[in-house]
Amino acid sequence: MRPIRLIARLDIKGPNLIKGIHLEGLRIIGDPQTYAQRYYEQGIDEIIYMDSVASLYGRNNLTEILEHTAHHVFVPITVGGGVRSVEDARKLLRSGADKVAINTAAIARPELLSEIAEEFGSQAVVLSVEAKRQNSGGWEAYTDNGREHSGRDVIEWVQEAEKLGAGELLLTSIDQEGTRKGFDIALLNAISGLVSIPVIASGGMGSVEDLVAAVQDGHADAVAMADILHYDRMTIAEIRGQALAANMNIRELSI
């Protein structure tokens, strides 16, 4: 069994690191490069940069931030937001990203996943899904940073995306995001049993107990954290230590 990865998620708007609740009410936190450097030094396994308004404006503005980070941070970096073509992916990968995350453009044109996977390999393609629970049951996939309905059922979409070439899944619960109330375990459990690609749980981590639940009950392969880190509620070392104490298969840092 592969170690569970601890991932810092940094949502970006313009030059700023931001954080909201349910992907709304965004608040400026600070300089994303400073935070990325801090998390790297604390021992994070990976970093995710998400441009929160890229799809709205049809472009990703993270190249400069990414290039700086790639020169100072030596863990895998995923970048998402506004990736609409193979060329967009190439630009980000050449700027220092290891993987690109795609949501809105993939729903609009699913074959984009195959095109990028054929060019760079499935390991470089992350399907980003913003899932919202429906009153009628199940979850709908949203686009444009949780602003727009897609009409697509999450369960059906992730299975299709895996066949098209997605190599990893970033699964964000809009209902739980920013609430500190834990991940949507039912959502994680439903998805993890249907796909063979790694699933990253995102949205709602308020404690190490939530991490443990995401892995043990939701069968997540990785956990993305934002609020708990950005507001200094726990350090990565503290999270890692408590997870190890709970017998989680987490990478131990060499001293």
Short description:
The chain is an alpha/beta fold. It has eleven helices and twelve strands. It has an eight-stranded parallel beta barrel with strand order 1-4-5-6-7-10-11-12, surrounded by six helices.
Structural summary, described in words:
This protein is of the alpha/beta class and 255 residues long. Helices cover 36% and strands 27% of the residues. The protein has helices at 32-42, 54-57, 63-72, 86-94, 104-108, 111-120, 154-164, 185-192, 208-216, 227-230, 236-245, and strands at residues 5-13, 16-21, 24-30, 46-51, 77-80, 99-102, 125-133, 139-143, 148-153, 168-173, 199-202, 222-225. The chain has an eight-stranded parallel beta barrel with strand order 1-4-5-6-7-10-11-12, surrounded by six helices. Helix 4 links the parallel strand 5 (77-80) and strand 6 (99-102). Helix 1 (32-42) packs parallel to helix 3. It is globular. The two termini are 24 Å apart.
Unreliably modeled segments: none
Q: How much strand content do the residues show? A: 25-35%
Overall average residue pLDDT: 92
Shape: globular
Number of helices: 11
Rg for CA atoms = 17 Å
- Order of strands, widest sheet: 1-4-5-6-7-10-11-12
Elements, N to C (H/E): EEEHEHHEHEHHEEEHEHEHEHH
Count of DSSP E strands?
A: 12
Q: Give the terminus-to-terminus CA distance.
A: 24 Å
SSE class: alpha/beta
Largest sheet: 8 strands, parallel, barrel
Percent helix among the residues?
A: 25-40%
